[in-house]
Amino acid sequence: MTKSLASGIAILFMAFVLVYVVVTPDIDLLNMKKDWGTKKMYVRVTEPGQQLLAQERKGTKDSRYHYYLVAYDAAGNARPISFSTPKSLKTNAVLLVLVKGAKDRNGNHLIGRYDVVELDKVPVRIREKLELAG
């Protein structure tokens, strides 16, 4: 095979990969790196978050809501997690969380990010663990 043919094939392959990445909606290039090393798990918000006032900025109070919950992976394995949000989450909301390997000082796993999900998107085994109907 000549060098020009090999170069042409390599360029064609890279173009195909680029088009695939751009066209595929499930690939989030901006969050891809920070999601490495995380595990998808589900959690149900069972109680209101603990409101923490961080500090006052320009006369307004800045607060966050901290949660300590138990998340479940696809196999039904549980992990205690800890995270905070700028807004209070609804009680009984179901979240898909990306759990990191890192832990807080109490041994709870930290999360990279979360998304609120509908009940029909939660695997049946996990619905049972989260004590959800449906």
Structure overview:
The protein has helices at 3-23, 29-35, 124-129; strands at residues 39-44, 50-57, 60-72, 78-85, 94-103, 109-117. With 134 residues, it is α+β, with helices and mostly antiparallel strands. A five-stranded mixed β-barrel has the order 1-3-4-6-5.
Task: Please sum up the structure shown.
This protein has about 130 residues and is an alpha+beta fold. It is built from three helices and six strands; from the N terminus they run ααββββββα.
* Proportion of residues in β-strands: 35-45%
- Given this structure, which CATH class of the largest domain is correct? Mainly Beta
Distance between the termini: 59 Å
Arithmetic mean of pLDDT: 80
Element-level helix/strand string: HHEEEEEEH
- Strand segment count: 6
Structural category is alpha+beta
The profile of the biggest β sheet is: 5 strands, mixed, barrel
Within the CATH hierarchy, at the fold level, what is the topology of the largest domain?
Answer: OB fold (Dihydrolipoamide Acetyltransferase, E2P)
Strand order of the largest sheet: 1-3-4-6-5
Number of helices: 3
Low-confidence spans: pLDDT under 50, at least 5 residues? Answer: 28-33
Q: Judging by the overall fold, what is the CATH architecture of the largest domain?
A: Beta Barrel
Integer tally of domains: 2
Q: Any idea what the CATH superfamily of the largest domain is called?
A: Protein of unknown function DUF1093
Shape: elongated
Task: Compute the CA-based radius of gyration.
Answer: 21 Å
Q: Report helical residue fraction.
A: 25-40%
Keywords: Membrane, Transmembrane, Transmembrane helix
InterPro entries: DUF1093, YxeA-like_sf
Transmembrane segments: 6-23
